[in-house]
Amino acid sequence: MGKDLGYNLKMLDLGGGYAGKAAKSRDEIARIVNESLEEHFDDLSIKVISEPGMYYSNAAFKLVANIHSKRLSTEIDKETGKEVKIRMYYVDVGIFGALISVLYQDYYEIKPVKGPTNGQRYPSIVWGPTCDSSDQLSDHVIQLPEMQIGDWLIVEETGGYTLSIASEFNGFPTPTIHGVINEQAWSVLTKNVHKPMSEDRFIRGEDLNNYLTDDFIEWRLLGQEQNGSFLFSWIQSNADLASPPRTRIGEYDYQKGTLVPIYTFDKKVDCIQASVNNARTLLAYVLKESRDEGVYKVYLYQIDEPFERAMEIGRESSRQIMVQFLYPKVSVLSGNVPIKFLVLVHQEGIHQYIIKSKTSDLNEDTISSELLVKNFVWAQWDPLQQTLYYIHNRKRNRGLVEGEIVEDTDPSKITPTLSGLQFNDELPHETVLNIPLNLPHLTTNSCLIYEDNTVPLRVHDCSLDLIVVTDSAGFVCICHHYLYQPVQPVIELSEEDSSPVHFAYTVTVLHQSCVIKCVIPDIPWNRAKRIRPLFRKTGDYLMVLIPEICTHLLDIGLSHEPFCHITTKPLLTAMEAHHLCLASIIEIDEDKEFVINLATLDLIELDLPSKILMDAFKSDTILENKLAILHYFLVHSEEPHIAAELITWHSSTPFTLAFPEILKEYLIASSYTSVQGNLPLDAVKLATFLPVSTQRLGLETEVKLDGYTIAEDSALSQRHLDEAVGATGEAVQRSAEVQAQSGCGQASDFSGVLSENKKWEEGCVADKYNDRSYIVEEIDGEEFRRNRKLINKTKIPFIVNNREPLDSIAYEDITNYSIDSQECIFQIESNQSNIESEIEILSEDSKLSISYHMNVNFYISDPEIEILSGDSKLKNISNHMNPEALSRCSTPLSPSGGASSTFADFLSNQTGAKNQADSLPFLEIDSCTASRQEHIISVNLREISMHLLKQSSNNTNKFQQQNQSSMHVHAVATRYVTAQLDQSRQLCQILCKAALYDPEEDFDKGFVYINKIDEDRRYVMFKLLEKYYMAVQAIAFPLPQGFTSFFAYLGYKTMEFRMFLQYVDRHVFELQVDIMKIIMAEPENTKADVHKKLRLLSVLPRSRAKRLLNQWNHPVSTMIRAREHAQNILSGISAPTSTRRQYGIPKNTDVKGLGGLSSSNMTPMDTFLELLTAKASLTEIDFGLLIEATESWNENIF
């Protein structure tokens, strides 16, 4: 045909499509092709070519699929008409994933990875994972043995037209390629290929078929390297091939999901630990031979060399041995650096081995060693920091505390000392840590029983269970776990003995110079011995997970002192305790935190759900635990919406003593967090001196959790800690059988002691009392008698405000108790500490109760500022003055202007726009000329500025690399005071919404809103805002604009009038102009209403009361003004002449002026007018006012 068309064709391409090994042989294919060529092409000069690509690619790949479902189907055979049972298997890959070629070819061979045991096969159909009817791996029924879910099927020769045209239909991923190469081929490739081949591309083993049919059992974790990769060992065998079990060592990369075998033993051995160098050219491993006591041996193997060339290092020992390669920093400028590794032999020494660079053979000439440490009792390797921590015993040259005398001849004065060796790349190693430790119940005798746990890499026996937790920011914690008996003398305990013991741990926080101690008493021995606590750093906290008992979150970050610790329910409650043996690992995922369960080798994502902490807050836990949880959400996790939700929830119980303390914690913690995000970079360190919490160091608490009681205790010094721990009993050594069992038992009833002890330097403690206002309420005499009993039994210090004399009703009862100096101080016993307490002093006759509120100043260790330093200034200044006495010119000034401009600046700098959604139920405007809030802001600004300036001057080494000028101090102080105002307003908004105020629906504000709502809502809102006011005043925070008048009027409409007056007398309520105007404008229906207004006018300043009296449209106002006018004339005080005017007093139409009065009843009036005219001229006397007052009196209006 080509010749007919004029083409001279000289080459014939037969194409491709050749099958792999499963198709016909090459000779058969060649015979058929040659017969066709002879028949159709007689010209032998034609060149024939073909494309056997599919022939090569098909045989290079096998598809392995896992059965995830199965069912038995009954169908009718078309040929015989009988019922046939067909087994349907559903696998995780189908025609859309990699087997699309099934649609046009049917020679794929599907068989099980492992053959049937009895040889029987059944009609079967294999389906893909999608619901498509065409997703069938073969178009006919195939014969397979009985398969189970989880079994594997292998599809032979799937290299051509599979992955190249695969899709992710319905979201199913395409198969992953794993390269498999046998050891001999790998060795040939690495030696002959110029560019080294990447090991993560291959699974080095036997051929593929044997690899898929092998059994892998007894997996063991041998270690984790600096890059996060894990070293595992396992036993590999093949029952079908009758191959003996062999131990293999491999490296697992979590990010790539690959396991690369490195070494294969010729038999089953007990490999306990291994390490690989940075270049992955050397492997060091430790074998333990089971003799009488067990012998440890160290071997060094050069990867890719024959396995029998592994070299033994050092000498064998019955003491535990671990080995670890050092990881130098690698850069393009790095030359050939020698390879170093450590060999740690328990109680014998730590050796450093150095392998010369450019060494091809390992022998005694190319490896040198040096002894770093002679003797140690415990050691741990930190792979990230390349630091070796070890504990050794040394004699003390001086006492641990002042006054202690140490004699050289006393053999008991041997101190365990924690040292740290830092290994550098170029410089020699150096000692970076050398700290004496006080380890409670540390025995002098070693048990020499080893658990051989390698993550983290530690060398120790059963006599000391200790772990060091660090990070690159300077976070260092020494965590010691131990058991001891609470009775004397110590008794021997059998393995299943249920005698109670104490479970305890101590955490020595080096970067905070303190010790935290926890004791959980009365746990049965057979359970306590299996509990393995997990110590792990998570954020700014040290998480201590005690399975089936509790989870402790120790706030020991670098930003502030450790005092906001949390106790909550245990995590991982779905897993049984004896299946949990958790260990911390190096970070392997940036977004997730994992720990490894050594009992099952499972990676467990360990996070702290917010719901657990919220549930703990809403439980009946103690106040300190709630404050710590609130602190966590505000400062550390920065989830203010959750904190607001918790405040709203707690608003349902505003009468508890804890509620004001929770509000204080919210204000202080949220203000601190707000400042942190709005500071210039040069001023960030100054913010560390700001208050961060209301809690104090060394807090004593008692937590109840699921029927258990966790009590917290504290000591002031390390000596007190030693005495407290030493008096409880001797340690219980765990036996060899106990050490062999890893896992944890179930917990029983317990009580725990969590204590903090300041070591070395003690911070300055500022404990003061803040006087508070009192509140008067009505109760009956029976409650009074009960409270008298309470006073005799309890002991809580509190101070009665002594600025003004107490009401005579309650003063007599108060003086019957102990009075110290000018302050009434009551000593009342209670287990509550550092919380607001209310003690009611009652009068049986009057049935009145006066609740005096105490608030102890919060502990803020120097150099942080005292929270109440500003409030103490306000107590001595502003509370002694009426609000209008505060002068704008007397308040402290900011560098830019006066107090008026300062206050306006703070209001304008408030973060967040005020819109309808976050508005308050009152107009945020103050009607007074000089607000107390201006004074609060000015005092706070001055005190914080002076404090920051002092601290920045005293800590010059901390700021030596920064330009900490006075403008930085002013910037921090200004932003903090602005944050105070912001967070105070935010908290007020949260409480108003909790009182059912909805800014989207309630459009009325201020006094109109108060008059609109019903009495129940009014009462709820008043109680919430009352607690808010108490919290704000206690820590000298400013109130939102307009709050004072709104709160006072809300109290006026809610409380009884005599209670309201006591609040006014104690300056809780401020009667500003706006509230007095609306009160004076209310109608007077009874004489009592008039008396109320007169009583309120009497407590106002004279000028303000006189202005309101002039505006009061009532006869009483006329009479009072007339009396004052007459008194001035008789006293000789001249008054300005005023024109006669109508005062708006309603008159009796039957009486018209003086002429309408008879001479009999006007004789005193005439005498009085004559007296006035004798004292002053007629122009100075306001006859109209006097006549109008006289008419009102004679009409018997009052």
From TrEMBL:
Keyword Transmembrane helix set for record: yes
GO molecular function terms noted in the UniProt entry: catalytic activity
Residue intervals of the Gamma-secretase-activating protein C-terminal domain: 981-1094
Residues in Orn/DAP/Arg decarboxylase 2 N-terminal domain copies: 2-57
Pfam hit, one: Orn_DAP_Arg_deC
Membrane spanning stretches: 1028-1052
This protein's UniProt keywords: Membrane, Transmembrane, Transmembrane helix
Record-linked SUPFAM superfamilies: Alanine racemase C-terminal domain-like (SSF50621)
Family: Belongs to the Orn/Lys/Arg decarboxylase class-II family.
Protein name as it appears in the record: Protein pigeon
